[in-house]
Amino acid sequence: EVRVPNGFSIRRIQKQDYEGVIKTLSILTTVGAVTEKQFGSIVEYWDTQKLPKGDVYKYNPYVIVEDSTGKVAATGNVIIEQKLIHECGLVGHIEDIAVGSEFQGKKLGALLINKLTEVGLESGCYKIILDCDPKNVAFYEKCGFHTAGVEMQIKA
Ligand code: ACO
Question: Count of domains in the chain?
Fold first, then answer.
């Protein structure tokens, strides 16, 4: 089971997390102009998408929050993909992981990955996968992941 350090909480993203999530994600990549209204309707969409069986959320967006300040310390998502292969198996895709710069190096990234992995496995996934920059391989290895395959892409 995932242990959360004193002074922090981990939970699904809520509409109130707008500013904190956008700020935290912008250390990962370009977020651009996302209004509070757009954020709110995406959170609503994430909260209403369920898989065909077992009352399982398709999107599992999480935040780690610092209790004393309400600040978002970290954010990430595990998306559960419904497949046909492996007897209608499920695969979890970990996406959009970011730990705020002032919160890095405190094991919150590892906590977030452990939590998202647990959510994926408890949802019934037979594997959890992610793509990352080579510089983050050592971090994910410490979280129990190993390299399997190569990421390829076409960029628009
Ligand atoms: N290289 C090697 N080791 C690392 C690295 C790294 N880049 N980052 C962390 N570690 C190690 C730590 O030293 C620690 O090791 P220890 O347990 O032996 O002490 C262990 O990994 C856990 O580290 P945390 O403190 O949990 O790491 P942190 O909270 O700083 O989060 C993260 C790491 C997520 C990479 C953070 O630095 C970050 O947000 N970076 C910028 C955004 C980013 O690259 N996100 C990942 C994108 S990939 C994706 O989204 C699927």
Answer: 1
